[in-house]
Amino acid sequence: MKIAVVGMGLMGGSLCKAIKHHTNHTVLGLDTDSHTVARALACGAIDRAIVPEELVECAITFLCLFPDTTISFAREHVDCFKSGSIVADICGVKQAIVDALEPLFLPTGVRYVGTHPMAGREFSGFAYADDRIFQGASFILTPTAKTCPLALHTLHDLAESLGFGRIVTSTPADHDKSIAFTSQLAHVVSNAYIKSPTLWNESGFSAGSFLDLTRVAKLNEEMWSTLFLLNRPALLFELDTIIGHLQEYRAALADGDKDTLRELLKDGRIRKELSLIGDATPPEEEKEDGLATHKQLD
Amino acid sequence: MKIAVVGMGLMGGSLCKAIKHHTNHTVLGLDTDSHTVARALACGAIDRAIVPEELVECAITFLCLFPDTTISFAREHVDCFKSGSIVADICGVKQAIVDALEPLFLPTGVRYVGTHPMAGREFSGFAYADDRIFQGASFILTPTAKTCPLALHTLHDLAESLGFGRIVTSTPADHDKSIAFTSQLAHVVSNAYIKSPTLWNESGFSAGSFLDLTRVAKLNEEMWSTLFLLNRPALLFELDTIIGHLQEYRAALADGDKDTLRELLKDGRIRKELSLIGDATPPEEEKEDGLATHKQLD
């Protein structure tokens, strides 16, 4: 079938390459940047470049744009998509996008599904596109009660064929809560970590832990500030949570209270160990506190 | 020459293996755990097991114990070391150890040098000892005005022969300030990060950034709480710094202030990029704020 990819940056470009590499589908690429289109054609990442009016040919369209552009492109070109075809966005937040796109496409017969391929690199643009970023990664589907089950199934199978390691389904709201913790918070903390003035004296002192903690400090500030603001309550909760915990270690340290400091560290160590063995059984008192639930598709 | 290693845990055991692997020196091992001694002998990590009274044979002794045990062992066995021989500790904080050991050894003619091989794993004990952990790592030497230059030179050359990538010299105080930022803070932040209740719902949502941020949450709480308390002012400074920065992002997010949020992220991104290209030139206004200086030995 014909699959369109709208926006061939790091993610869209990688998706083009992955579809070409792993399937026999025809890939049609759309990008406003003519150099990107030329590069994608030259390296065989796409079979053909298209304009929005040609989206009507496609069985599946992936919108691989920034959140605001995803919504504005869909609104502007809503009549270009074929009724019955599948449209999926790949934004890193889902509730805001699903809220905007689902009511837009429902009356047109287009089958919209929110997705989030959990992959990325510290670089942007087609030049860094690489289908290997999806190998073993999670592909999140965020259907609602109105999502076509067949469209969901089609995307599930496609993601599997592209090499994703886990296909997970979640509500848009639960996705956003989890992603605030596992991805957005990581980017804020990493970006905050690097700001100590001691950075300018760290030459020779930066071991693996420092490099790990600061790797994703190198981020696209325009994209991430947009994503953060689209997920405000969940990210605020995570920020308040980690700030609160950091203040506990700080207080124990300031008090010279070794017993408390040791217990605080032990608690974190045990949680990490539980998460490593996949035994996501929370300590008894937290069983009711979980913020989000998901199930993994078979 | 004969080199003694006192304490054959992860670090001491790895050091034994590295010396055997890279040099022709004789390695004598001392540990209170007979199983560890037996294992070290069986795998050829040491040539011979010794008791403290045999330390007198050795040209160099590495004390590879926890900070408090390093000091108590040295005090208890100060008469066992040969005058003129070199004794080096490998503790992750230096001022407190140097302050205790230097006046202890100076009157005996033993040439004490504080060192810090910046390597480690998320596991403890001889079972995980691996000489490869030192490959390319930094070896920090923290001499004082009273340190014998020749002893410093001997340890420098030995570290180089063991495969360390950089040999850095620093004052004990400056070492402790840098290590508070590049290592201790990483362990606290990682340990705090894992404590969100959202952890129990992250299945399928944990991409590389989450794994990076939480890797060192798995730590030895006894050792790290001791190290943190021995470096209180520097670690408090780093904790206050990151908490202050996190509160800036938090405020911008709560206010829905995208311009400020973008600028905060951009500032972090630029600092990370500068640190990556090794251009440790701070922004103009911070040039006087640096907390520590080191030089790299040729």
Automatic annotation (TrEMBL), chains A, B:
Residues 289-298 have a biased composition (Basic and acidic residues). Residues 1-282 form the Prephenate/arogenate dehydrogenase domain. PROSITE patterns: PDH_ADH (PS51176). Keywords: Oxidoreductase. One of its GO terms (biological process) is tyrosine biosynthetic process. Residues 276-298 are annotated as: Disordered. Gene3D superfamilies: 6-phosphogluconate dehydrogenase C-terminal like domain, NAD(P)-binding Rossmann-like Domain. Signal peptide: none annotated. GO terms for molecular function: NAD+ binding; prephenate dehydrogenase (NAD+) activity; prephenate dehydrogenase (NADP+) activity. Pathway: Amino-acid biosynthesis. Pfam families: PDH_C, PDH_N. It comes from the Bacteria. Belongs to the prephenate/arogenate dehydrogenase family. PANTHER family: PREPHENATE DEHYDROGENASE, PREPHENATE DEHYDROGENASE [NADP(+)]. This is Prephenate dehydrogenase/arogenate dehydrogenase family protein. It comes from Guopingia tenuis. The lineage of its organism: Bacteria, Bacillati, Bacillota, Clostridia, Christensenellales.
